[in-house]
């Protein structure tokens, strides 16, 4: 009850007081909701689907348009990595890769993850590190610039979320996005690490699920999965270790 009340207060402060928060229900008894085009997964319906939005202020809360291809099942360890003209496996230089699909530019948890990815890339030149963004090219470039540059991370922009769909990363549900724990951990992240996030990049959707994967030089998935929650702590040291590299310190230099 208190968690729901806290979420209502947070929505009112964001100017979204007219949004009705759905009740939790048993996913097994909500099979009919999966046929709803506005459903966001496992018994939850996007409460923002029919909200009338100002031109820019809250556009990131809207359910994004469907990607050009159906969202596939996420790859399992041992599977051959999905290949696309934007992201080919095996890579041309035959290096193993760590690929991170960003939730959106501006998310504080995404910022923390990108900084860790960049630091890991500095320590492991034998591994290629890739970040995929679904914000616009301009918004992605601006966000990366504010963080001090990409360094040894290759940034791929995927505004129609075709790559996300190829790797099994679709739209999240209400519980994934608006869990009160996310707000609490966001405050801790800001106070403890100075990472508060930024304005949501143009084209970014808060509903997009992120994920991280490690792919070896043969193009085989060795580690990774979609993010289980907005605030999940992605262990990039485990990704590097799965590729056979032991220098997993996350310092900048």
TrEMBL record:
- PANTHER family from the entry? THIOREDOXIN DOMAIN-CONTAINING PROTEIN (PTHR42336:SF2), THIOREDOXIN DOMAIN-CONTAINING PROTEIN-RELATED (PTHR42336)
Which residue intervals make up region (Disordered)?
Answer: 19-52
Q: Which Pfam families does this chain map to?
A: AhpC-TSA_2
Organism of this sequence? Pleomassaria siparia CBS 279.74
> What InterPro entries does this protein's entry cite?
PXL2A/B/C (IPR032801), Thioredoxin-like_sf (IPR036249)
What is the protein's given name?
Thioredoxin domain-containing protein
* Domain of life of the native organism: Eukaryota
Compositional bias per record (Low complexity), positions renumbered to this chain: 23-34
């Amino acid at each position: 009850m208190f968690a729901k009340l806290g979420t209502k207060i947070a929505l009112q402060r964001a100017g979204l007081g007219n949004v009705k928060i759905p009740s939790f229900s048993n996913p097994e008894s909500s099979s009919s909701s999966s046929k709803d085009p506005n459903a966001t997964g496992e018994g939850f319906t996007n409460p923002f689907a029919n909200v009338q939005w100002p031109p820019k202020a809250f556009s990131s809360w809207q359910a994004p348009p469907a990607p050009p291809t159906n969202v596939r099942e996420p790859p399992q360890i041992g599977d051959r990595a999905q290949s696309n003209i934007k992201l080919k496996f095996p890579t041309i230089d035959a290096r193993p890769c760590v690929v991170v699909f960003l939730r959106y530019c501006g998310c504080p948890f995404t910022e923390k993850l990108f900084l860790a990815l960049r630091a890991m890339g500095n320590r492991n030149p034998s591994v290629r590190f890739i970040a995929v963004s679904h914000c616009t090219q301009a918004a992605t470039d601006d966000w990366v610039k504010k963080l001090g540059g990409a360094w040894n991370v290759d940034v791929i922009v995927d505004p129609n979320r075709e790559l996300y769909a190829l790797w099994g990363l679709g739209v999240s549900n209400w519980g994934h996005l608006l869990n009160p724990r996310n707000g609490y951990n966001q405050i801790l992240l800001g106070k403890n690490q100075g990472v508060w996030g930024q304005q949501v990049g143009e084209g970014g959707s808060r509903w997009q699920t992120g994920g991280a994967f490690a792919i070896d030089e043969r193009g085989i998935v060795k580690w990774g999965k979609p993010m289980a929650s907005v605030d999940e702590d992605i262990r990039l040291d485990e990704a590097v270790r799965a590729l056979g590299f032991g220098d997993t310190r996350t310092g900048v230099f």
